[in-house]
Amino acid sequence: MGVLDTSLDLDALFRRQLKATPDAIALVDPEANYTYAQLDAKVDSLAFYFRSHHAVGRDSLVGILMGRGADYPKGIANPHYAPVRSYDLRFAVNDLQAGDRVACNVYFVWEMLRPLLRGATTYAIPDHTSYDPVKLVELLADQKITETLMTPTLLAAVLARHHNLGAKLPALRSLWLNGEVVTTDLARRAISALPNTRILNCYSASETHEVACGDLRQMLSTLPDDAPYCPVGPPMDPAHTYILDEDQNPVQPGEPGELFVGGGLLARGYLNLVETTAKAFTPDTFASRPNARKYRTGDLARIIPESGLLEITGRVGGMIKIRGYSIVPGTVEKAIVDNFDVSNCAVVAHGEGLERQLVAYVVPDEGDTAGRTVLTIDDNGHSPSARQVLVSHLAHYMIPTLWVVLHSLPTHEVSGKVDLKNLPNPRAAIAAASGTHSRARSPAPDETVNLKSIAQLWALSLNTNPNTVLEAGKNVSFFDLGGHSLLLADLATRISKTLGGFTVPLGDLAGNPTLAGHVRVTLNARDGHNAAVQADLPTVLRADIELAPEFKLDSPEPVAACPLSQAKTILLTGATGFLGGFLLHDLFKNTSARIVCLIRFNAPYRTDRSAAMARLRRNMLDLGVWDHAMLDRIDVLPANLSRNRLGLVPEVYDDLVERVDVVVHCAAQVNLVYPYAALRDPNVEGTREILRLAFLSNATVQYVSTNGVLPPSQTGWPESTIMPLEEVPEKLLDGYCQTKWVAEQLVLEAAKRGLPANVIRIGTLSGHSETGSTNTYDLITALIVESVHLGVAPEIPNWHIEMTAVDFVSRGIVAIGNHIDASQPIYHLGDSEPIDCRLLFQHLDTLGYPTKRTSWKSWVALWNETRGSAKGGDHGLTVDILRSGMPSEEFLLGIIALKDDATRAALGDLQRPKVDAKLLQTYARHWYARGWMQRQPSSVPSTPSGEANGANGLALAFDPDFPLRGKVAVITGASSGIGAAVAKALVREGAHVALAARRVEALEKLQKELAEISRAHGGPVRSRVHVHKTDVVDRAQVESLMQTTTDALGAIDIIVSCAGVMYFTMMHNVQVGEWEQTVDVNCKGLLNVLSTSLPRLLPRSTGHIVAISSDAGRKVFPGLGVYSASKFFVEATLQSLRLETAGTGLRVTSVQPGNTATELLGMSSDQEAIKKYGEPTGAKILDTSDVANAIVYALRQPAHVAMNEILIEPRDEPI
């Protein structure tokens, strides 16, 4: 006999319960509670217009449930008797009673009515909580829920966050699992986590309702150890549960087949889909009742002979076939989960034909992985080590070829089931991850709340590339890119942990699902959190400087300090930073210790070590200090300073406690905009965790602080100065300095308790004094570089700039670490005498970077107009720095100088590099190499040693980056076109030029342009320009050109013969004058240039002659017959000269331009020739600068390299 009276419909059953318990609570949601009587009134009001004038009968539809079809949603029409019989069967398995609290979220519409038929209370779980593993468990615990339902995927996510779930949910008596197959691994974990909860597996569909239900504990005990899946229970209506073969015949017990379901719980069919209904609901030929139907589930199943339990083995068609082999994915998935540190897995086939491969998508297990192998995956998505393990468990064809790491398997946002269709393309996912370990690597997140940083976190949750997110636009929805409720909860956690430790409301993220919306939600959450802390900052600071009593030494006596030179193990933080990288290098070079580097990760795992080492190496390579020998003495540990035990697992942390002798704490989150609250965790709590470890290990601590813990002072603060607590909020105005001040107090308090600890305050860092390697995001560097670009420097009265070389600070920390003096806890490493900004820019003037002076206000206005509004481009980093926050004049004047009188004894012979022209030259060379400067600095001026190429008495050393600097070049045809372009290009290279042409006015105008170019682009020697009126047809004028050039500029090094004419003429039109002009200029002109220059070049065994020929000198063009002949003459002449002078040191280059935008195109008068052969083709032709660049390229080649011919043409007009 059933629990319910199934002769009644839902309305009658509810009203029966209403009469029994009218005042009992029926429904609870976040907005209100309703008794049974109140709910009845609400329902009557809502349903009034549905019912019209007659009651709903038993055979009327209870509702239309929309199910997801393959191509479109399907409306499943269910009569009243179906849910009544369904609930009756469920109550027979696990009954409810008054006082039960049933939480409904998954399949809410179906689940919400069931408790109301037994006097229990339905708790409506809000959407923003449904798939948030943390908030969901909090709600279940707070409301003392006795029963709920989850999908296996949701349960797996909950167990990943709550390994001891039963302790959090002591009231939970029953847990239903539905919607997916339950693996035996998940079942065992659930049973272990919920020892006092009955866990029920239920197989159902909206078309059939409950088909089978069973207790997982009981069913699991009947299975062999290697079973991949749990059964769903005994069939609830065995007589109408059929497993059929392809011919619709029943299979034998134990044999797999397709599951069909008949009986009295079937839906009527699909609303308005007659053909679809006919395919899914077929005649039940096994039933005795007329017109009986059965439903085709599409699932593969079998009846286990020993127990009679129904087991779902997959979907029809779900069997994978690869090259003739049949593979059951579940078998492979179980082997992976059983043997590797994987919590969830999906195995699918990808590709077609012979390219078809087995792909495993794995989710790392963040819990207890004892006894399981760490899965390692290379950059190509292959895992040889996994194959070695699996070969003893699976046939060779069942081992996946490709492996993809996901944060979670994709699920449908409504049902929560694993959605195999939304698994990412394996090759794309592998390329995006590009890792050699089993975790999806996190790019170093941008900790500023903006579109970029939120996009990075989206990418991590969605397992995609940040660029993919950004390219979709700021209005793209998280759900459009594959997100769902579980991933949204993961995103909320990532945002909180990455961007400052504040809680981001999941509901707000769901309500504003776009990228821009998430930025707004995050900013609101951060600002609200920060405001609460900032509102009472003095009280917060006072509390934060307290060190708990547990921070103490085991012995009452102080611990002896350990010098770095005697340490066996050194723990270093901040090694991926600017100072930290150099510090690691110096510790490696100057100690014999093993160096353990903590590398910051938001969620540290042991298998992230390869990513940590890669991050460390990238930084060291960028700084220019990487040495492969470091691998022998460096260990890396992924960690998070603001986490308990530094985010390390217990055994790793304990090992570190046992090993470490000295801690050098150099890590900090630097942000001059964030308030104290936003930086508190990494900078204050991180230091507290470092001290906790030091007390446990009796380690010596060298804490790297900043001059920012003191207010501005140009006279300098002595080492003994400590800012009083009361003055910190008003004199230290940014959160970074406030957190560093608090961290200092913690270190000094630890020293008072006997822990050997020093505070090392550092000044404003500049580049390496020997290599120039510079902090990429340095504000002072940006100001200097941008001033050079403008040619104008700001002049602020009494503005001094501190530039303390990073290598001095790094070596100073090592020196202090070897200097034991318990009486001095604070040391200073900075420039006690900062340089006057006027002197600094004077030094730059001598290095070839002249600047005018103007006020700060005018400088900012000029920069905004000329640089700030320009697009940054590849080399716009210094522009971007100032765009992100232009400092105020007050900020620049607020220099904090540190006196170092008490520190010098600890430094020994170490001297701080002086900021002079030599140091600035080193920095400028590095800035140039970075692409921030357009030219290298000149040599540092020394005692005059005579004129170097006639230039200002400076000795000019050869510069391999500017091989033409100081060379003397003669250019004919320089008044326009290619000749003028060559002159400009050579001046940019630092050469001196002689301009020759007939039009003196044009030459003089060009001379002024070149002077400006030289000022902007010149080096140690200004390019000088000599102008000479020259007609190349007149040899005397050409001879005069050569002589006056030698007298004015020095010995000639380069000849560029550009003078020439070109006329379109038809031969039959006999344009004799134009023919003769062509021969005179193009042929005779070249001979005049050669005859006057060769006697000057050959005796010097050096020189380079470049002559403009044409592609018409290689192929005759109709309409240009005489011009082509003249260029064939040029080619023959140059070739002969090249062969005859080989071995003399002279180089000869023929440049053969195609169609170029010059005045030559407008010289012709033969209209027939122009119309027939001179009309544009529509192709983009060459600019004169294109040809000039080719010439400069040839001239810049080493002396032994000859560019004999250069054919340069428009891409679409080849000869």
Automatic annotation (TrEMBL):
PROSITE patterns: CARRIER, PHOSPHOPANTETHEINE. Keywords: Oxidoreductase, Phosphopantetheine, Phosphoprotein. Coiled coil: none annotated. InterPro entries: ACP-like_sf (IPR036736), AMP-bd_C_sf (IPR045851), AMP-dep_synth/lig_dom (IPR000873), ANL_N_sf (IPR042099), FAR_NAD-bd (IPR013120), KR_dom (IPR057326), NAD(P)-bd_dom_sf (IPR036291), PP-bd_ACP (IPR009081). Pfam families: adh_short, AMP-binding, NAD_binding_4, PP-binding. Belongs to the NRP synthetase family. It comes from the Eukaryota. This is Carrier domain-containing protein. Residues 445-526 form the Carrier domain. Signal peptide: none annotated. NCBIfam families: Thioester-redct (TIGR01746). GO terms for molecular function: oxidoreductase activity, acting on the CH-OH group of donors, NAD or NADP as acceptor.
